[in-house]
Design goal:
- It is built from no helices and 5 strands.
- It is mostly beta strands and 70 residues long.
- A hairpin with a 2-residue loop joins β4 and β5.
Length: 70
């Protein structure tokens, strides 16, 4: 596994738009640690549906899925 860091720009029930420090290919399934409060986080699985390199990092749109495909 590869570790990266990111910040959610927008969030919805279906997914996240994230600014990240590394690129992830479209259709890749990620395991995310989502912090919703300073003392609360959940583990989510999401598929990358869009990714674009920017001068200061990467923008990605992630769609939540129930579990990674085997």
């Amino acid at each position: 596994p590869t570790r990266g860091a990111g910040l959610a720009i927008t969030a919805s029930v279906g997914g996240l738009r994230v600014a990240g420090d590394m690129g992830v290919p479209v259709d890749h399934v990620c395991t995310l640690r989502v912090r919703t409060a300073p003392d609360h986080e959940t583990i989510e699985h999401a598929r990358v549906v869009w990714s674009q390199a920017r001068p200061d990092g990467y923008l990605m749109v992630l769609e939540f899925i129930s579990a990674p495909s085997a």
